[in-house]
Design brief:
Layout lengths: L33 H6 L56 E4 L2 E6 L2 E4 L16 E3 L5 E3 L7 E10 L4 E4 L2 E7 L7 E12 L4 E2 L2 E2 L7 E2 L2 E2 L6 E7 L2 E5 L11 E12 L3 E7 L4 E3 L27 E13 L12 E6 L4 E3 L10 E9 L6 E8 L6 E8 L2 E8 L6 E4 L8 E8 L4 E6 L2 E7 L11 E3 L2 E3 L2 E3 L3 E10 L5 H8 L10 E5 L8 E2 L9 E3 L11 E4 L3
Length: about 550
Amino acid sequence: MFAGRGGISVAVMMAVAGCSGASGDELARDQAGEDAGRDAGVDAGRAAGPDSGAPDSDPDGGAPDSELDGGALEAGAGSDGGEDATAPVCQADGVSCAQGDGAGICCAGACVSGECCSASDCGQGDGSGFLCTEQRECVDVAASLSGLTWALPCTGEAGAQSCYTDPSQTVSATLGGAAGVTYDVTLRFRGVVEQKTYDKGCAGAGSGLWVSGGAPANDSYNIYRLEVSSPAQTFYLNAGASNITHTFALDFQQSIRMNAGASITLYAASLDNQQIKNLQDPSTGTEGAPIVVEGTALAQPYDGQFIQMDVLDVRPDAVQASGGGAAGQVLRLNGGQFATVARAPSLEPSDVSLESWFLLSDAPSGYGALVGKPYLTGTEDSYVLWFQSNVLLAGANLSSPAGAASVPWSVDAQAWHHVALTVDHQASITTLYVDGVAVSCAPAPAQLSFDDHPLLIGADIDNGSLSGHWYGALDEVRVFSSARSPEQVWADMHTHELGPTQSLVGEWIFDGDQGQIARDSSGSSNDAVLGANDTEEASDPSFGSADL
């Protein structure tokens, strides 16, 4: 390809602690008052209903009707005065009941001590942001995140439209929750900011000011960054065009995944100790007037710039760790080996996605390709994922790193990671994902170009010769004839074998493979051959354990 080119967080679904189904103790009756109770037509051992009247007995001698409103239905007596031990203890799960000397909760038909049977019993009744522990206690998972604020106050006049400010502010918090659980956290951001250009960031669905990944442009405008430690993510909240001399009101929502115990860091920086004053857009006819953001903790209008973050909802992520991540056999490559998939119409779609787990054990002298389809006779590729000069890159219709989605990357011989490329020609966007997170975006070509070159795994072709060999190992290599959504990339990462799936045109998981063939489990019959042909040779990679 380009002759001149140059862990893992695994999400698991929360298993909400199921509450015990053990039967409650039958309440003892007051024997001393039994005769008086019969005379009054009321069992002395049964609590009176809300109207203090005795409930009618079932004519067939069964359990009496309950008049308890949301409480425990206690064991009673039939019309013959005998005890009915089969009467239910609780009306419904999650309903308060009497337990010993205090209040309890109905779980699996039994009245047990505690305040919740599931997360839905916590908070406002829908479980938003809460966890029901094994001890049946409600825990607010994201309490420490709500209300966190970036603030860069004006400390002196610097000009008609600017002021001096603090150089930076950093605020951190930790997400609670059950160990090993990944949560979908919906956040609301409000504030006043100046815009800044971020290169190759991926725009969020909620606002043009939010981008995932990318890098700040080399100018002095303020940076507002949010970092999550697990899964590792970086977001910027004031994306736009630098050099605009008024501020912008910020109010949007965004959902992100966070693992329990992850640290969340808010970072605000004025790179030259100056910033734009809190001034509305003069084109609105309010020149010189400040922006007022209601409902925030800071007094308004704020003399400076700020962002306040509040938690709207927290729920366990829908995807469980059902597999994925270098399971079973993998394809091992020593820097001079590769696998070949013959040209097929299914591998030449209008949109494409590539996915693979990878281990990079050594830096190649030039570059190393994970998977790609060479094109023409120079250094072009129809689509490709590769590593070069401590950068992980991806793109389509490329002949050099220029125009590729990219992220800085270091060799780590001990850590497996997941990488994905999606190319959506209608949306004109190419997205690079690492470990399920969008880290870089770039323009996509209007149309992918193909010729009779095969698909290569672990190498590339530049100027008619094999090059770009991979050092390390690969697993769960996939090609789709569509641009996978962020949710699909995340789910794919946690699935070892998809099998026949819509738009999946190639899947090589290497389990059970032997000899010269790596079978395609997508159902498209795009088997890979080790090396260039079915003859054993030095260019053949090997099947082996993920533990290199």
